[in-house]
Amino acid sequence: MTISLKHRFCAISLLALTLGLSGCASLVKPRLPDVFKDPPPIDESTGTRATNGTYTLTDFKTDFDAYNAKMPPDKPNPTADDLAAAKALRNKMVYGVLAEIDYVYHNYEMSLFMNEGSFRVATDILALGLGVASTITNGERAKTVLSAALTGFTGATLSIDKNFFRQQTVQALVSSMQAGRDRIKTIIIRRLNNDTASSYPFQAARSDLTAYFSAGTLPGALQELNQTAAASAKDERKALTGVTVQDVENATNLNKTIAAEFAANKPIETVKFLTAMDVTVKDENDDAEVEAAYRDLANRALDDPVLKKKFDAEAKKAGLYK
Amino acid sequence: MATHTHLVDGGQALDQQENALNEMEQLSFAKVTAYAEVAGTTNNQASLDDVPIGQQPGPLHLVAAADATQAAKVISDQKTAGKTLAFQGKAFVGGNETIVLGFR
Fold first, then answer.
1. Could you write out the DSSP letters of every residue in A21-34?
2. Which of A35, A38, A218, B9 is most buried, judging by how many CB atoms fall within 10 Å of its CB?
3. Which chain B residues are within 8 Å of A303, Cβ to Cβ?
4. Residue A13: is its pLDDT beyond 60?
């Protein structure tokens, strides 16, 4: 019996759907304890929503009104008691909001993992199906259409990967989000512990909470990754090591020789040395330009052992290390 | 005048680090104004301010102190000997964190 192309597609699609739906639900997370559910579950004995420590908008409004009563804008010099009460209220509000941000963040983190996983499973199965179908299908035109569809589909997958995830794995993005969140949370908690309600009012904490929330987003993760990469690039500088007394003497001689040349407005050996080091000076008679070129080279050599080795060798040849 | 930073291996002994800082100053026509450990590494970072060519200050001499009290005594002793404090900071020496003071 011949199985039509349409039937083959249906079978593959159903298989993918079955696999996708059967495994995911139990993989996402274990059952959340009632005390962590947000919003809280309904209390069966009373039929109303239970209280489980979730920081609601009503709780926030109550605390914020109490905070404003202790720190009114028209009272620039609050008493010590008011400041202490305002600090306690500020901390309560900030910790409450932090907990809510953490709750939504962890849900987001899980959905990011699961959505990416589901997306990749679905795309892999579809790509596999298209590949198999194009192989077993009779007829050149159908083969061509299926191959083209497969190529287009693979391209679309790559495009999503490139443009949405910036070719980063979800693991890397989540680690980056967590690093950014940890960094900001440390600052917030330190300020809550050390600063008064006057030097770190709730409005300032609110700004930090916004940064904390943003750090747990995809753009926040990409920004954190870029900053980390930039910091790593800066740290590619190598530490200076193994400098001997003779090296210091050579450097002192070079310093004196170059200083004498500049004092005489004839940095001839300095220019020769720069040329040997592949540094181009447009106007050799311009002392300021020669000086800037030399300083730049010396500073680069102090961070780069390979360049430093060449620097030493050429300085010796140029007679700067006398 | 511009400021630059360079790294020195904090696993080295104090006299080797002194050589490194003196070489840096002479080669780059600058003077060290700060010296401190780099968090998460065993390196120290020197901050240097450019000086005009021909006006290089005298050589640096490093002294280590275990705590603030000892550091104060070192400063007092060096001052008596005619030396001026150029910088003071927590830095690695032989891989261990200590207070390093630079005098000229």
1. HHHHHHHH-PPPPG
2. B9
3. 6-7
4. no
Residue A7 to residues A1, A127, A183, A255, B17: CA-CA distances in angstroms? 12, 17, 54, 84, 77
Could you give the CA distance from residue A244 to residue A253 in angstroms, rounded to a whole number? 14
pLDDT tens column, B65-92: 999 999 999 999 999 999 999 999 999 9
* pLDDT at position A227: 77
Q: Inter-chain contact A241–B54, Cβ cutoff 8 Å?
A: no
Place of tokens 């001052």: B79
Cβ-defined contact of A262 to B19 (cutoff 8 Å): no
What's the whole-number mean pLDDT along residues B10-14?
96
Structure tokens at A77: 């010099």
CA distance B71 to B63: 9
For the stretch A287-294, contacts whose Cβ atoms lie closer than 8 Å and that sit 24 or more positions apart, written own/partner, are A287/A262, A291/A262, A291/A267, A291/B53, A294/A258, A294/A270
The stretch A309-318 carries a mean pLDDT of 93
Residue A294: both structure tokens together: 């030399």
B87 backbone dihedrals φ, ψ, rounded to 5°? -165, 165
pLDDT in tens, B19-64: 999 999 999 999 999 999 998 788 999 999 999 999 999 999 999 9
**DSSP β-bridge partners for residue B98:** B91
Q: For residues A154 and A138, what is the distance between their CA atoms, to the nearest angstrom?
A: 23
- State the nearest Cα–Cα gap between A270 and chain B, in angstroms: 12
Is the backbone peptide bond immediately before A39 cis, with ω within 30 degrees of 0? yes
Nearest to B35 by CA among A306, A240, A254: A240
Which residue type is seen at A287? D
Contacts of B43 in chain A (CB under 8 A): 239
